[in-house]
Specification:
alpha+beta; Type Iii Antifreeze Protein Isoform Hplc 12; 5-stranded antiparallel β-sheet; 5-stranded mixed β-barrel; 4 helices; 21 strands; 35% strand
Length: 343
């Protein structure tokens, strides 16, 4: 451009190769220098006078932190700060449209120095929330915590499997938490329907329903060999095993005493879970046995022989009878020979 401008000046001055006059050569050189200077200044003026322009993207996605100016540009621009806020993020599934005029109006308040920027690109930008489809195993992981509190167990002991969801679960790409909305009235079981709400930090994303299969694993005592009713236990007759206890009731993860002081209340096959009802403390007094009954009244203590009317273990209350008066009394078994009677 500078060379063409210089040639125009030379033609106007009549400087051609045919004349070959020294004065004309000097004039030509002077004019050439001026042309180069004028062309350079003009080009510099044009470049410096053009305001920088930004291009608006036709559509963008954002997270829950809000909408910022640099996010709606069609191409990254280092000259635009990343902290110019345009508005809150749209709700999932509810995009909103911002025109150039609306953008300029926001910039007049939030960034006045950029309000006069020349805008190109799309006439408006559609802003939507960045989402993804939640998978079944992710739903199970989110439900494990609330359901373990419902089952009153450690979360690592609860195994959940969510069947295929009836509808896709679209959620933002942000941290999620599940809240139980509805459980079966009959309580938890191996298979049930659960209604749950998915929430973010300050908003709800919706309520869904899922079919859940559950197992509650726990180490419990089971029989290592068959036990007969009334048979005393020993350390070889019971063992700890990890079992699914969701449908079991009153299973024992801790024995009520040493195995040697316990006996079976019913016949139990090998591998049967031990419950509170299947064991009892081994009686130390038996029905028909005569023991010493002790009656205490403050510092006064009276001992008399009484007949045991039912089997009893230490700490249990049983019925006894005075052989002379035939009066029935209640007493607490102390040991093999003593029952503390309360009048």
């Amino acid at each position: 451009m500078r060379f063409l401008a210089a040639m125009d000046f030379l033609r106007e001055a009549g400087c051609t190769a045919k004349r070959g006059v020294v004065q004309h050569a000097r004039v030509c050189s002077t004019l050439l220098l001026r042309a180069l200077l004028v062309g350079g200044l003009a080009a510099g003026f044009l470049r410096g006078g053009e305001p920088p322009g930004f291009s608006l993207a036709p559509a963008v996605t954002v997270d829950g932190g809000g909408v910022y100016l640099h996010q709606v540009l069609a191409a990254p621009t280092a000259s635009v700060p990343t902290n110019i806020w345009l508005g809150p993020a749209p709700a999932p599934g509810k995009p909103w449209r911002m025109t150039r005029a609306e953008l300029v109006s926001l910039l007049q308040t939030n960034a006045p120095e950029l309000a006069s920027t020349a805008w190109g690109g799309a006439p408006a930008v559609v802003i939507s929330r960045r989402t993804r489809v939640l998978k079944e195993d992710e739903v199970a992981a989110l439900l494990r915590g609330p359901l373990s509190r419902e089952f009153q167990c450690a979360s690592q002991d609860l195994e959940l499997k969510v069947a295929r969801l009836p509808v896709p679960v679209h959620v933002p790409e942000e941290p999620l938490a599940a809240k139980l909305v509805e459980l079966p009235a009959t309580g938890p079981s191996t298979s049930f329907l659960v209604k749950f709400e998915l929430r973010g930090e300050n908003e709800s994303y919706g309520v869904w329903q899922a079919a859940v299969q559950a197992r509650l694993w726990k180490e419990i005592y089971v029989t290592a060999a068959p036990l007969r009713r009334g048979q005393a236990l020993d350390r070889q007759s019971v063992t700890l095993e990890r079992r699914d206890v969701l449908t079991l009731r009153e299973v024992l993860d801790v024995l009520p005493g040493e195995p040697e002081v316990l006996e079976a209340v019913e016949n139990l096959p090998a591998g049967a879970p031990l419950t509170r009802r299947s064991l009892r403390l081994k009686p130390v007094v038996s029905r028909g046995q005569l023991v010493q009954g002790v009656v205490q009244d403050g510092a006064l203590s009276i001992a008399l022989k009484v007949e045991v009317l039912e089997d009893g273990a230490p700490g249990q209350w049983i019925r006894v009878r005075n052989p002379q008066s035939k009066r029935e009394l209640r007493g607490k078994v102390q040991d093999e020979q003593t029952v503390l009677i309360v009048l």
